[in-house]
Amino acid sequence: MTARLARLRGPNNEGLLLAVIVLVVIAMSLASPAFFTAGTFFALVRSSMVPLIFALGVLLVLISGGVDVSFPAIAIFAAYTTVTLFMDGSGGTALVIFAVAMLIGAGLGMLNGVVIARFRLPTLIVTLGTQGIFKGVLIAYIGSAYISAGDLPSAITEASDRHLVDVAGGGYLHFLIVPVVVIVLLVAAMLKWTVFGRSIYAIGGDTEAARRVGIRVVRTQVWLYMLVGALAAFGGVVYVILGKNANPQSLVGTELDIIAAVVLGGASIFGGRGSVGGTVLGVVLVQLINNNLVLVGIPSTWQRAAVGVLLLLGVSIQAFAATRGRSRPVAVQKEVAA
Amino acid sequence: MNGTRGALSEMNGRVDNAFSAAIDRIHVAHGVGRMALLLVVTFGFFAVLRPEIFLNSVNLQNIGIAAPEIGVLALALMLAMLTGGIDLSVVSIANGAAITVSSIYTHFATTQGADAAASMTPLVLLAGLAVGALLGAVNGVLISMVGITPILATLGTMQVFNGLALVWTGGVTISGAPAALRSLGSTAVAGVPVLALVLLVAAALVAVLVNRTPIGRKVQLQGANPVASTYSGISKRATLMTTYVTSGLLAGVAGLMFLARNPSASADYGSSYVLLVIVIVVLGGTNPNGGSATVLGVLLAAVTLQVVSSGFTALRLSAYEYAIAQGVILVGVMVLDQVKFRRRRGRRAMSGTAAPEPATSAPTH
Amino acid sequence: MTVTATPVLEVRDIVKTYGGVHALDGVSLSLAPGEVHCLAGENGSGKSTLIKIISGVERADSGAITIDGTTHGHLTPNEAIRSGVQVIYQDFSLFPNLSAAENIAMLSELAERRVLSSRSRIRAAAQRVVDDLGLSLDLDAEVERLSVADRQLIAICRALVNDAKVLIMDEPTTALTYSEVQRLFVIVRRLQQRGVAIVFVSHKLDEVLAISQRLTVLRNGRVVESGDASGYTRRAVSKAMTGRDVSETRLVNDVAPDAPQLLEVEHLSRAGGFDDVSFALRAGEILGITGLLGSGRSEIAEAVFGINPADSGRILVQGKPRRIASIHDAVDAGIGYVPEDRLTQGLFLDIPIAENMVAASLDAYRTRFGLLDRRRIRRSIADLFGRLRIQAPNSSAVVRSLSGGNAQRVVLAKWLDRKPAILLLNGPTVGVDVGSKEEIVTILREQAAAGMGIVVISDDIPELVSCCHRILIIHDGHVVAELAGDDIDADEIQRRMAA
């Protein structure tokens, strides 16, 4: 208990993260004059949109004390299934497509939630299992074909080409940034200003105590995983729209990058801590590196190692901070352990 | 006076008996017994359904050749789980070892000729194992000294090891493996593939390590209650380092087995193995929270999943359907265990009231 | 003060069995508004089960619970909360990651089935309770950063935020210092005046008699005594709890005059813990260290055992200076430690008794080939079982199934198997039934007679008096007195501790 409490104390290192981002931006600008342009910025925004949505889901689960690795499978399952449903051109505005996909996502999320909450099982292992199930069902029974732009529902291809801002030289800001920003703000507001949001923090802080003050833990968790499933599905559709194709083999395998970004953003793997602000910064940092390593002359094969090193550095700092915190108030901590 | 104490001890005795009986049942059900039954059932199922394909000697041989590398990886993960941790990097480490062996060997073969390279084989293989142990040590340092939670540490190292392998190979599959290693992969002794023997030897060594050596018992105690083990004078650093180095070494062995089966190596080989290996370890009766595991259970689980895999092939089911089966088995087993545990808890609640209550002292005056 | 108002809580003929064993066998209890009712009993007497049933966490097999005139067949936790029953758990059940205000007000936000959560409303609700009780608390601080006493106050505030009618306090004083306990009592009396009925669960008889109007003693799931607290003495309650008279006589063996020094502690200091502490321990001697909670008594033991090493000073073991920077160092030097919190620090609950017993001495069983000598292990375990009179069906039962007394004997066995020269015990009989208590003290005497040096850290003064050759009294991090031989006297110790 003591150790866990002490480790929880890891600083929500948003400030540090912002400083790192600024440093990286300065370094990259110095290394390559092509870096500091509107085009690069818009590309960064565009490539951050999908990871950011996924990261919100990961954040919610982390705060509640779990780890979810099934969200990419849910995302592509929901998006691809919805696309195949509307492929014959049977109408379907973008709004309808989003709604249907999010319903599917919520359904799959509910499955996670019920198994995890009802049986109190380790979330990582459960979602590893459901990830296999979701992807397997998608490819074995729903479809394994790559759907190219020509076969996508027209609502999606139209959405693909809607830009908010175009700049000379090919850069553009995609209009989907608007709903993405709205969702980011909504999730932040929910975590701060709703009893549901506070209950998620409470469950992540101490599940048994949550039960004792009358939070319906099982129900809250099931709703939470449904919400996370719906978020993943939203991200999946955005992914399809931005990429202008639907590939059932895609997305799965990117979960660890997202988790790395959220943990970098200061969320605690032990639950109870994490913020939307930190998560946004974490995602931006990872994308900044992923997008621009090549620009500054580092081969793209280094991407994965670089993100891994970044993650290890981030969690090492947290671990060191926690150890230091642990050795301070000895007397008090001993009593807590009792 | 004696009456009360007698009644108390009698009550204790009754609780103890009921409880230990429950524990005994769980122990048998949990690991070996259940797995043996499951193995027989799945084997029988496919044998009855598709005897001509499934019972074909080639198919059986294939099970014997494919199961071992996964089995060894499962043993590596089992050790980490025994301490209450996890090692997500085992597959990356195995690939690292395979790439090391393949590229060093190829380097010698091209610069000094095939014969010279062949004579260097033992050294080259040792280099592969050394890489496994070294990468395991990196995990060990991060977890036991820096103090990062195993899941985050190995999540990070998995990315880093895998990323470095990508950098080294340039993202392509490299080929080439020592001839001796390759022939090992295709040899059988008395009908048993050598690779299967390697798995058996590895399993026996791990079983001895865990059950019969002081450090092995300490690893288990560390998993059962890290605080109490520190308070018993057990060095956390030593047990965790031993665990993750051994785990890395086993992953290195698995890497050599990859090469023995197929003389090529890549950073992305076996990307679906992480899930599979976790399924095997949990199915084999390992407690994901640490403190208990049986080698035989894990071994049987590895074979069972390979039987399911080749059975699915015999039934012309796809790899994705196998992935579904893995997921269903994993979740199903955990749910079943939990249901059983809850039923047991009804009985345990009594001992809860009789059990010591944690209490610190305060002044009486 | 006698209370004759209609009961706010009435529990009738509660029966609860687990697997055929009666945890509660027809227990009845009634509680008037403004009454402090003490529920006393040893571990395993059924106290916790009764609390769980009143708070709706567990369901009774038969019997009825009437709260404020409404009878409930089976109560759910939410019904209990809404009827005004609040429990303050021993571990407080707070959220370490949330602010004090949020911890206090979360309950009312949930009870009012709110959707939106407002920081100012939460702050106001929490402030209201805090002001009501006349407390000063930093409401914006994260609970994780607060002291134990403050956490307890927050737990009390939380219980009151929703106008509780019945407040159950489960061992509320365990983690508090003397003055904090006094402060708690003031609050309890204030609540009482406001008509809140309080069930005070404790095993500390002095406290019980000081604060309660009525008293119910449980033993083996039955009510054995119930009545006005003023009619009982400490001894009568103790007898009711255990079913027998407990002797508190002093029985100390002589230490041989030429017994060697085993442990010498010289000028040991640790910032924020204790300052310039020196003492020595000879073979065959039992040394008591006592003081109020927070006096530094536990910290001294923890420094000697390397848990939180000292900043300065010297520790000599068997005449040789030893550097003790970790538990590992201490164990190597020949020191064993029976911790206060044995469930988390002393035992491997889900591991068989036998393996617990050899957990600290595994290396001693290494054969030439590096393997464990299992035959020797079995012999040692059989021997320890007999010597410590452990009651369990067999050595492969898991420790979780044992009673407090037997579990503590397993911790002792773990160290006896290691054969340390010096054994430190922190609160060795806390949470142990009276019968086992005596036997544990007897075991310590036997070990001392066999040449071990023993240090008992405890605030159970009768126990210290009964077995210690010398007693150090710690106050505010300093040794303020050392009593030996005939000077050892319970009243004198009490006086010096509080000074």
UniProtKB/TrEMBL annotation, chain A:
Q: Report the locations given in the UniProt record.
A: Cell membrane
Assigned keywords, A-Z? Cell inner membrane, Cell membrane, Membrane, Transmembrane, Transmembrane helix, Transport
One Pfam family for this entry, by name?
BPD_transp_2
> Where does it sit, as one GO cellular component term?
plasma membrane
The regions listed as transmembrane in this protein's record are: 16-45, 52-80, 92-117, 124-149, 169-191, 222-242, 279-299, 305-323
> What membrane topology was assigned to this protein in its record?
Multi-pass membrane protein
Coarse class of the protein's main subcellular location: membrane
InterPro entries the UniProt entry points to = ABC_transp_permease
For whether the record's keyword set contains Cell inner membrane, the answer is: yes
- Entry's Gene Ontology molecular function annotations: transmembrane transporter activity
Please report the name of this protein according to its UniProt entry.
Sugar ABC transporter permease
This protein's species is: Actinotalea fermentans
Automatic annotation (TrEMBL), chain B:
Any one Gene Ontology MF annotation carried by this entry is: transmembrane transporter activity
Give the GO cellular component terms, alphabetically. plasma membrane
Q: What are the subcellular locations of this protein?
A: Cell membrane
Topologically, how does it sit relative to the membrane?
Answer: Multi-pass membrane protein
Membrane-crossing ranges are: 31-49, 70-94, 123-148, 160-181, 187-210, 238-260, 266-286, 293-313, 319-339
Keyword list, A-Z = Cell inner membrane, Cell membrane, Membrane, Transmembrane, Transmembrane helix, Transport
Reading the lineage from the top rank, the first entry is Bacteria
The question of whether Transmembrane helix is a record keyword is answered with yes
Protein name (Swiss-Prot/TrEMBL): ABC transporter permease
Automatic annotation (TrEMBL), chain C:
The record's Pfam families line, in alphabetical order, gives: ABC_tran (PF00005)
All copies of the ABC transporter domain together span 9-245, 241-499
Task: Tell me where on the tree of life, at the top rank, the source sits.
Answer: Bacteria
Protein species of origin: Actinotalea fermentans
The protein's name is Lipase
Q: Which SUPFAM superfamilies match?
A: P-loop containing nucleoside triphosphate hydrolases
CDD domains registered for this protein in UniProt: ABC_Carb_Monos_I, ABC_Carb_Monos_II
Tell me which InterPro entries the record gives.
Answer: AAA+_ATPase (IPR003593), ABC_carbohydrate_import_ATPase (IPR050107), ABC_transporter-like_ATP-bd (IPR003439), ABC_transporter-like_CS (IPR017871), P-loop_NTPase (IPR027417)
Q: Which Gene3D superfamilies match?
A: P-loop containing nucleotide triphosphate hydrolases (3.40.50.300)
Q: Which GO terms describe its molecular function?
A: ATP binding; ATP hydrolysis activity
Q: Which UniProt keywords apply?
A: ATP-binding, Cell membrane, Membrane, Nucleotide-binding, Repeat, Sugar transport, Translocase, Transport
